[in-house]
Design goal:
Blueprint: E1 3-6, H1 11-23, E2 28-31, H2 36-46, E3 53-56, E4 61-64, H3 66-77, E5 93-94, E6 97-98
Parallel strand pairs: 1-2
Antiparallel strand pairs: 1-3, 3-4, 5-6
Helix pairs in contact: 1-3
Length: 104
């Protein structure tokens, strides 16, 4: 199961979490703002305090950047979750603005 390092106050993390919900993907969530051990793991695995950060140990993949994480989850986990997400592009809005997922 992939792990997402996040902060609840981060709008990019919220965007990823909304897409995770839309795609019905199961992730282990680690809040680096509350958990010092999770922050230490983030620094060890990624080298930066930047969030969101996804680690998929089963596929030897780790990445920053919300857009990349969303695309990765769509490509690798949307079909296995039994979601209709592969046939329609979910809409994700953070702060009332139109995001990349809705453009085009």
């Amino acid at each position: 199961m992939p792990t997402l390092y996040h902060k609840p106050s981060c709008p990019f993390c919220q965007r990823v979490l909304q897409m995770v919900d839309n795609l019905n993907v199961e992730l282990e969530l680690k809040d680096v703002s509350e958990d010092e051990a999770a922050l230490a793991e983030l620094l060890e695995k990624g080298g930066e305090k930047q969030v969101p950060f996804l680690v998929d140990a089963e596929k030897n993949v780790s990445m920053y950047e919300s857009s990349d994480i969303i695309e990765y989850l769509r490509e690798n986990y949307a079909n296995t979750a039994g979601s209709a997400a592969e046939t329609s592009k979910p809409r994700v809005h953070v702060g009332g603005s139109v995001c990349e997922s809705c453009e085009g």
